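Dear support,

Our group has been running a series of protein-ligand predictions, and this particular one with coenzyme A is the one our PI (initials K.S.) wants archived with full inputs and outputs. We had some confusion internally about which version of the output was final, so please treat the block below as the authoritative record. The input we submitted was:
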Amino acid sequence: MSRYAEIYQQSLNDPEVFWGTVAKGLHWYEHWDKVLDESAKPSPRWFSGGMFNTCYNALDRHVEAGNGDRLALIYGSPVTEQKRTYSYSELRDTVARLAGVIASHGVGKGDRVIIYMPMIPEAAIAMLACARIGAIHSVVFGGFAAKELATRIDDCQPKMILSASCGIEPSRLVAYKPLLDEAIDIARHKPTTCIIKQRTQLAAELQDGRDFDWEGSLSQADPVDCVPVEATDPLYILYTSGTTGQPKGVVRDNGGHAAALLWSMKNIYNVEAGDVYWAASDVGWVVGHSYIVYGPLLAGCTTVIYEGKPVGTPDPGAFWRMISEYKVKVLFTAPTAFRAIKKEDPQGAYMSKYDIGCMDALFLAGERCDPDTLHWAETMLDKPVVDHWWQTETGWAIAANPMGIEPLPIKAGSPTVSMVGYDVRVLDDQGVEKPAGEMGDIVIKQPLPPACLPTLWNNEQRFVDSYLSAHPGYYLTGDAGYKDEDGYLWIMSRTDDVINVAGHRLSTGQMEEVLAGHADVAECAVIGVSDTLKGQLPLGFVVLKSGVERSADELAAELVKRVREQIGPVAAFKHIAIVKRLPKTRSGKILRGTMVKIADGQEWKMPATIDDPAILDEISSSL
Ligand code: COA
Ligand code: AMP
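Confirmed final output from the archive:
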């Protein structure tokens, strides 16, 4: 049996011993009563009875062990031409003072705080400061519009919002404060306090009594100590796209989350204390939570906050410059970033300008990694390129190549094998396991390992309906695929209306709700079509109300603007086809799958249940 197989089996056979041993690598104020409480509802809980603080484990623990001078965080910002570093002591002290600011406004254990920030160190500091006092943070990605922010404000009802005056995209400054003000206007719930980091590129107007200047507040604050919380208390809520306009508030706990991330740093990524680990993502996504902030710091590594893009800031050599300058050992990003670099620097001319010998491996996730991109990256880097598969819901990899245990042979297109604690199965509609090589629903047998979501914020019923009801005893991932003869997983597509655009998870159902709200639209359908750069792009089909006679270009522009204003630029919604009718089954279900095949230029069969076959020709010609 391989070393990986042995460890994996141990984790399934005796999860209590396995995770109990991992958790000994962390600091506990009080030992847990049970490693795994299977009686908890709606899902089993990890380390119940244990008292814990994630910020203490990420920062203070290292300082108190004598490693305060070690580099904790590097900020590299090609868009502002700035660099800054924080040692573990400096980061702990700044976090403790911001925690003092937050607490001084009456925010404490269990209160929610929204963080709406660009990629600056203050975003990570804000998350850690909340964790320090047991407040539950909810980070909202900067590319979302005010309405999306308002939806999250109403759902998690924060006492406070931490934000900045602006973000910087290559083509424009993103004024955050007007978006924040608009969101608070729209929301029914009103936070009492906002703390705003003023950036030199754009100053924000502060509202008397509600808004406070970040630096001014920090200069007057007293540092506060970590507050012990239950291991099972929420550390954060992170909203992710589901099938409707209402995003799902994924809840993450403290103790189990820290244990799983700590295990993953050594065993999956093969990094240790003192190594520089860079996840080129955004704190607004789960990758940013787990692998820009918590994972690397829990492991005592140096993490990198990069405010820039893989290309255009200023060129496709940006990643290699960062890697050589900061001696990055592991880079983690989305395949789309590599497709962008490949497009602009196919021969690797920019790469060859830098010495990237310090780098051991590249990890990719967030979307399926097409074999072409994987092979190109392998050839250019001459290093292992590791695809791994996970979701906001799980918080860490479900399947990966465990580089710190033993590198397994790489099969392009597969994220390799199940990680510890994940008993992954492939089932048919009836819940029967599929033989190797055959596609089905990918599910995980309960209990899910530590860090995976115990519920959805404010909506236990939706948690049960979305994830636990389709196949009793199993968690439904929403992905379809298969396992091969060697136990490798192949993740091929989503089984719901979620699409993946540039590694960003988006809901077509949500875009349909926005289009359907336009006065001239009778019916619509949004599908994800293949795109060589972003993986998928949304494409909207719109049927107009009878009697509406409008210029197609004018209407399309209005609809594009509407999605940008109501969901945000991150939706990358730019393509609309105005059609006379939508193809449906005789029972009225829109044939989205067939529309995707037509739009992608793939072979397709006339569905037996189609109401009127002529409509598919109309769809083809509208494209
Ligand atoms: N704040 C405000 N706007 C943002 C934003 C942010 N944090 N992030 C993206 N946007 C905007 C972009 O400016 C763009 O706006 P535009 O339509 O005016 O050009 C829009 O949202 C779409 O962004 P994106 O899909 O990211 O496209 P892009 O053209 O800006 O960049 C890539 C393309 C491939 C370079 C970029 O997507 C990338 O680096 N991806 C890495 C993947 C990643 O980080 N995934 C996260 C999970 S690992
Ligand atoms: P998110 O919750 O934003 O991380 O998106 C999770 C979804 O992205 C998964 O359910 C998959 O559909 C897709 N995904 C993420 N990583 C991979 C991968 N390595 N291979 C295939 N699909 C992936």
